[in-house]
Amino acid sequence: MANLLITGATLADGTTTDLFIADGVLVDPASAPVDVERLDADGLLAIPGLVDPHTHLRQPGREDAETVDTGTAAAARGGFTCVHAMANLTPVTDTAEAAEFVQSLGERDGHCEVRVVGAVTKGLEGVELSELGRMANSRANVRVFSDDGRCVADSLVMRRALTYVKSFDGVVAQHSQDPRLAGPTACCHESEWSGKLGLPGWPSQAESVIVARDVQLAELTDSRIHVCHVSTAESVEVIRWAKKRGIKVTAEATPHHLLLDTPLVASYDTTFKVNPPLRTSEHLEAIREALADGTIDMVGTDHAPHARQDKDHPFDVALPGMIGLEQALAVVMDVMVNTGRMDWPTLVERMSFAPARLGHTTTQGRPLTVGEPANITLVDPTARATVDAEQSRSRARNNPYHGRELPDPVVATMWAGKVTYRR
Ligand code: DOR
């Protein structure tokens, strides 16, 4: 592996430094040989590689939508050095063998580290626990378990899952969506908009009632719960209450729930169909405030690539989900940093350190100091561009930011010293 000296980079805390990468690790820049390869980072920020707690890579099973190769290439372009691969694959990641298979795909094709998320229940059916312990003890070393895409609706199953994962300090990441309140046809936020547009809606309470139940089950079992893609003001209030009580709860917000709102659905463009749905501005405001004050601990992209034929349907029939790895940092910058709501050290906490801690990923989410793995994202904080979905490294084109002018921050991404993206 080539050694590299990054010169004159500014760190998140505002200090300027050289960073010397040798054999994938950060070492003292004073020891760099004079003829070493150099990268001039004058005017650029160097931040720890981003970590996504919530990515759908679709392989195995739906390689027409995304593969580990294309999904992690998109991740690298977005500044990520690690993604957590969700379990709603075909076959579902619910056994040690399935987990090791996804792990090996990541090792073979990944442009970043791929951490495997195991399913909570067999086949995501919500009935019988999957092989939680065997997945934890497998080579994939699974610590995050989620039926994401589906809610673990049965309280007793949830209690058992929380009890089980506690034995190896795992965490259950819940897709909070009461399946009765959000019926099978619900496809947008229940509001004046759902009425006007004639689309079946789901109320924000279909999320928060599950969050309220789960934090109480986490208290009962003294175990860890993680709330995926928080989208409502009510959920934020519940999480705030639970944290005050000392309950072990963490939460994530997606870039799209920070920026995009319900009225976009009026276009009936199925790119904007997502679960949980895009909410109204009061909810967006609550999510932004919670991400700033730490009630919401981290950003998760919920990158959900879909093949065109699964989106080319009437709104209520099309599959939910939007891609997000490549624009995640741009959206968080524009909504949170460029508005003065968040500083760079806090962004690093929300997009690198906190998601690495979620599943005890020790190789990621580390400060850029000597002796640490060289996972680095170089950022130009001033560059902007209009998003073109056709330019994506993802195989999918369901990009909700297409045509929008946004920051275009990522200049280079280095994963364990290897350049995985360079503009
Ligand atoms: O919109 C969504 N799509 N939300 C989820 O939770 C799952 C995801 C998918 O897998 O397509």
What are the SSEs and their pairings?
Elements: E1 4-11, E2 16-22, E3 25-27, E4 37-40, E5 45-48, E6 50-55, H1 68-77, E7 80-85, H2 96-109, E8 113-118, H3 132-137, E9 144-145, H4 155-166, E10 171-174, E11 188-189, H5 192-197, E12 201-202, H6 205-221, E13 225-227, H7 233-244, E14 249-253, H8 255-259, H9 281-293, E15 298-299, H10 308-311, H11 328-337, H12 344-358, E16 376-379, E17 384-386, E18 405-407, E19 410-415, E20 418-422
Parallel strand pairs: 1-4, 1-5, 6-7, 7-8, 8-9, 9-10, 10-13, 11-12, 13-14, 14-15
Antiparallel strand pairs: 1-2, 2-3, 5-16, 16-19, 17-18, 19-20
Helix pairs in contact: 4-6, 6-7
If you had to describe this structure to a student in words, what would you say it looks like?
With 423 residues, this protein is an alpha/beta fold. It has twelve helices and 20 strands. Strands 1, 2, 3, 4, 5, 16, 19 and 20 form an eight-stranded mixed beta sheet that branches. Helix 2 (96-109) links the parallel strand 7 and strand 8 (113-118). The two termini are 20 Å apart. 57% of the residues are buried. (4S)-2,6-dioxohexahydropyrimidine-4-carboxylic acid (DOR) binds at residues 56, 88, 148-149, 175, 274-275, 302, 304, 320-321.
